[in-house]
Amino acid sequence: MNKWNLIIDIDKCHNCANCFIAAKDEYVGNEFSGYSAPQPLHGHAWIRIDEYERGTYPAVQTSFVPKMCNHCDDAPCKKVGGDAVQKRADGIVLIDPVKAKGREDIAKSCPYGAIFWNDELQIPQHWTFDAHLLDQGWKEPRCAQVCPTGAITALKTTDQDMETRAAAEDLRPINRNLQTKPRVYYKNLDSIEKCFIAGRVIHQKNNVSECFENADITLKNKEGEVVSSTQSDVYGDFRFDGLDPESGEYEIIIDAKSSGVKSVKTVLGESLHLGTISLD
Amino acid sequence: MRLAIVLAGVSFALNATARLYPSFKARLREKKFVAQISTRDSAKGRYFKFGDDRVVSKAGTHPKPDMEITFRTAELGFKLLTPPFNHGDFVNAMKNFNMEMSGPDDITLFFTNTISLMQTIRWKSGTKMPNGETRFVNNTNGGPLFVYVKDGKIVRMTPLDLDESDASSWEVKAQGKTFSPERKTTISPHGLASKSLVYSSKRLMYPMKRVDFDPNGERNPQNRGISGYERISWDEALDIVSGEIKRMKREHGHGAILCSHSSHHTWGNIGYYLSSMHRFMNAIGHTKMALNPDSWEGWYWGAMHHYGYSMRNGAAETYTRLEDCFEHCEMMVFWASDPETTSGSYAAFEATRRRMWAKELGIKMVHIDPYNNHTANFLGGKWIPVIPGTSPALAHAIAYVWMTEGLYDMDYVRDRTTGFAAFEAYILGTEDGVPKSPEWQAEETGVDAATVRALAREWGSKRTYLSAGGKGTTFGGANRSSTGTQWARAMVCLMAMQGLGKPGINFGNLQYCTPVDLNFYFPAYAEGGFSGDLEGTASAVQNYQRMPHLPSVNTVGQKIPRLRIPEALMDGETHGYPTNPKSIEGQFARFGYPAPGHSKVHMMYKYGGSHFGTTMESNRLAKAYRSPGLEFVVNQSIWNEGEAPFADVILPACTNFERDDIGEWAAAGGYSHHNQGQLNHRVIAMQHKCIEPLGESKSDFQIFLDLAKKLGLSAYFAEGKTELEWCQMQFLSSDLPKKISWSEFLKKGYYVVPHANEQQVPETSYKWYAEGKKKNVPEPHPLPAEYGESYLEGLQTQSGKIEFEASSLKRFDDPGRPPVNKYIPSWEGRQTTDLYTKYPLQLISPHPRYSFHTKADGKDSYLCDIEEHRVLVDGHYYWTARINRQDAEMRGIKKHHLIKLYNDRGAVVCAAIITDRIMPGVIHSYESSAEYKPIGIPGESVDIGGCVNVLTSKRHQTEKTSASAPNACLIQVEKWDFSSEIGSVAQENAS
Predict the structure, then answer these.
(1) Are B81 and B89 within 8 A, CB to CB?
(2) Chain A partners within 8 Å of B349 (Cβ)
(3) Which one of B865, B869, B924 makes the best mutation probe of the A interface by having the most chain A beta carbons within 10 Å?
(4) Which of A146, B548, B844, B870 is a plausible cystine mate for B88, CB 3.0–4.6 Å?
């Protein structure tokens, strides 16, 4: 049985907001009987984009993460909602706009904050994977169609195939601890879950300041083990990424060959820029 | 005899159509009148009695017809009335007075429209879907859309998925790979949000009059922007407006009516301002608002003097090829360039994938910008933050490194440029004793000398594309600063040193580079639709010869610079320098207001979007609206926002989804010739009337036509044609009929132009120049007279080469623009110490990311809920401003706090976004808010709408330009105390 999945590549999202707008365009003012009641004009974000800024000036990287109903296989809303929440054979979760009337508990049951309470209609609402369109033969939901970078792709396949692919490409749900078996997978989650240490190396040459290129730079943890090594680029810049937040003390050893060796220590809370390190 | 038969045929056809179409039968009943068509000598003719279910007609002449059409001869009448009709024959007959029409406008217009309806009533548009919806097509500033409609209501709008009936997509081979675009169109957020703009709660649904405005009594101009409105009928509104037009001419004379308009209202060649509005305004005669080249300033007033391109407002050629970049380019320097925010122009995200490919191919990226902009953040690479307004100093230091280290193309400089010795003397400091070294610039720019040397060496040793501004070939926030001319000039000089046009060395960022077929003709919007305006549009370039229609001419010679309208209204005099792209020297001709012997302005006809968001020192405009000398203001607008609540009478226009129109995606034409070179697929759209106009709103065309009727101008204005028929005229004037029938195009709604084959694609930009060949890129400029040697040889400059020392500036004394480009520090920046002490933050206000100028902002649209755009605080959606974390901490400002941005010119309240992406000491907030909401007296209180141009200076970049400089702006920021006072209450209390 082929089921719907969504794959979101965080490194390809540039926050154009088209997926957010498409979920407004499709549902605001429209009723799709048996699927969804109209979304309010403001306040609901059935697809929202969360922003994660890492680093300090001038080493800074912002990632954007589209989030929506995960269409979980172990959906907490289904457990609470009973027959007001339907899990379709194609994997899509639907909250019945009629049966779920007055059921604020369904909205509150979602650990991802993806179910919105419609005050006016007194119903819980979510992004339905555009099931009404897929049932009419549309090839993909609208968020995938409007995505200019290919950050969002919809895939209808077997669970086994999806599992293989997820393992091969390191696709993971947004919050592994919740154990709800989401059908929305993320690529490059490290871009928001891990931290970096950046810095810059300069030196004096012929009485002027120059960037130091190709310094061998080693990162050691507090146990003195080498975690990673890299080289400075033409601007003297270097960066170690993929570190755990709040992972404590690190030592950065800069081997600039004949220009000397320098060591800098830091404590990593969140991503940071060490500043400009002069070899002189 | 033959004419008699044809006339009898008209009668027969009218009644036959009525039998088939009940709506047509109903129309025949609508008006009771007698129309007569005859030869001028009345020898032959026939009259038609309207007013019943069927038309009764008789051969011969009627003693008292209500309207008449006469032909000089029976032969001419026969020829003109026999299908297939040729509008060119009608136009020629009218021009030579061989055919005349007389009678009241409401009857003649009704008659001619009824005749044409016999044909158009059979036309079908849209595709029926299995679920009962109809799929229409439309077009926006941000890309084409399928529009799904059910029961007269828009259900959804989506970008176009292309199918097998559409032309195939191009493939480009480079680096052993094949690159091809997705089979769909992309769309900008402001385009995708269109449904919320159509059904916006801010729509104007009926004509309105300010409650305390009495055209025959007290006008109370001092209450503009303060008083409320009452509903009036269309008839009353049209009577007031047409009455005031006549009164202006009668009482004040030539030039008393000013037309002020937005540039980017709604897409479509017929409804566009250059079309309907120009035609109407030319027909009544008006003082023209002289546009300054807002987005091009530094290029137009600066760069042009070194290499020409006046017809592109000083922008570079746009024909770089994907292959050239992918095969040869090693590095791309984005300088004041954020194409992922500004989409080139109108091109949605068409180029985004191409830049992703460039990254995958390992092309290095550098981003020079005070803000780690969205392109920098998305593509990565080296971010070099630069203090606003100081980029030219950085550029000079790069040239210094190249000169001192021999890192430039000496052969190219020797053979393809002039004046290098003078430039070298300035850069090396032999002229003034100040070497423009990396150390020299560090204090100014905030970029350390080591970084400048590293960048200069990379650039000097790698084949590099310079992406100057968002288009890559022009624009950029740095060109809208006090040093904008210096920056744009420096960009040309740097590229000249590196060998512009050699493989992999060019202006660009892959925005323009695809092998779309640029030889296929369809009129661009700048060609003026049906305006016939040969002076004020690019109509003469192509469309006037292709589409028969009457010319229109504005007889009033008076003009006011757009950014000096407030001075013109308040002080009664001002002056400016023109946007005249014909030559490099066109911009030098200073003009004054009032023009000799002309009336000053006493009436403003305001059309389209608001100018508050795009006028420097915006509060001036609010004050000007309340001038007693401004006797009447009419505002024709879709939404009740910005300037609309400053009018005396408001005319409600509808959106492009509620009218018939036609237009090609991104086809700007004029200054942006071949703007479709950005696209992956050229899409020409029949912009269907998807739904009926909401409320009592009408299309701009219809509003102008209704006014024309009141002025006896309707036959001249519309030439008897409806909007839909003008769409067909545009279609027929293009290359489309060779490829698709009108009926198929009308039904399907779009045509994808097949891409060019290898032989048809122009050579990459400037290759011809680098190789010393004749110009071979397909742009019809410079104009023939602008060549110094033989036609097509060399550039537009006096020497025909890139001039480091500009010949044109030697003959014109503007202290801010010496012939050799020199660094002159900003008149409002960190160097202006007194002001900087008081206002220690620099405001930059680039073009917005989600909205397009004022389009799609405010209006209760979906965009209100995008946090980067606006933030909801206490029931109001506040415009956002980005502040560096350190600057925020110093001021106790936290995320989404309401902060007051202020200086001596005014104050704007924004919601704070705290980020390390903006350099310390700089505030980033987009310009072009659609909303202007002063919370006290307009022009004298705090604005909570988000018009950050309230804060920017009206001063021009240099003394003898009309160049705006909004990015030279010093402000202070503090948490807002909810008072309406412009100045700092906190500081005053403290002192």
Answers:
(1) no
(2) 16, 148-149
(3) B865
(4) B548
Under the phi-then-psi rule, with left for phi > 0, alpha for psi from -120 to 50, and beta for the rest, what region is B670? left
- pLDDT-based confidence at residue B843 (cuts at 50, 70, 90): very high
Q: Where are the domains positioned within chain B?
A: 2-120, 310-515+767-810, 833-990
Rounded mean pLDDT of chain B? 97
Reply yes or no on whether the pLDDT at B1 is more than 80. Answer: no
Scan for tokens 């548009």, then name that residue.
Answer: B125
pLDDT tens per residue across span B912-938: 999 999 999 999 999 999 999 999 999
Query: B155–A42: do the CB atoms touch at under 8 Å?
Result: no
Cα angle, residue B553 at apex, residues B551 and B556 outer, rounded to 5°:
175
* Architecture in CATH for domain B310-515+767-810: 3-Layer(aba) Sandwich (3.40)
CA angle (B434, B440, B441) in 5-degree steps: 130
Mean predicted confidence (pLDDT) in B216-228: 97
B454 with A236: Cβ contact below 8 A:
yes
pTM: 0.97
Q: Which fold has domain B833-990?
A: Barwin-like endoglucanases (2.40.40)
Whether residue A142 lies within 8 A of chain B, CB to CB, comes out as: yes
CA distance B374 to chain A (A): 7
- Position of tokens 């909007």? B723
**Reported confidence tier of residue B985, pLDDT bands at 50, 70, 90:** low
B356 closest CB neighbour out of A53, A57, A149: A149
- Give the whole-angstrom CA distance, residue B906 versus residue B947: 10
Q: What amino acid positions of B are annotated as catalytic residues?
A: 264, 294, 525
Residue B984, pLDDT > 80, answer: no
Distance in angstroms (rounded) separating the CA atoms of residues B507 and B333? 10
A172 CA: distance to closest CA in chain B (Å): 22
pLDDT value at B989 more than 60: no
Average pLDDT over residues A182-209: 97
Fold of B2-120: Nonspecific Lipid-transfer Protein; Chain A (3.30.1050)
Within an 8 Å CB–CB cutoff, is residue A230 touching chain B? no
Q: Do B192 and A22 touch (CB under 8 A)?
A: yes
Contact A20 B865 (CB under 8 A): yes
Q: In what order do the strands lie in the sheet with A184-187?
A: A152-157, A3-9, A184-187
Contacts of B860 in chain A (CB under 8 A): 41
Of A20, A22, A209, the CB nearest to B448: A209
Cβ of B192 and A237 within 8 Å?
no
Give the pLDDT mean for A116-142: 98
In angstroms, the separation between the Cα of residue A73 and the nearest Cα of chain B is 30
In the block, tokens 């059409």 appear at B69
d(CA A142, CA A216): 48
Residue whose entry in the numeric block shows the structure tokens 């071949």 = B674
Is it the case that residue B991 has pLDDT exceeding 60? no
| For range B299-303, the mean pLDDT | 98
Q: For residue B410, which amino acid is it?
A: M
C-alpha distance from A157 to closest chain B C-alpha (Å):
22
The fold of the A3-192 domain, in CATH, is Alpha-Beta Plaits (3.30.70)
Q: How many residues does chain B have?
A: 991
Quote the pLDDT of residue B265.
83
B137-185 pLDDT, tens digit per residue, is: 999 999 999 999 999 999 999 999 999 999 999 999 999 999 999 999 9
Q: In what order do the strands lie in the sheet with B143-150?
A: B127-128, B134-140, B143-150, B153-158
Contact call for B196 and A234, based on CB within 8 A = no
Q: Does the distance separating the beta carbons of B919 and A57 come in below 8 Å?
A: yes
- Could you tell me which CATH class the domain A194-278 is placed in? mainly beta
Dump pLDDT digits (tens) for B480-517.
Answer: 999 999 999 999 999 999 999 999 999 999 999 999 99
Q: Is A153 on the interface with B (CB under 8 A)?
A: no
Which of the 8 DSSP states describes residue B274? Answer: I
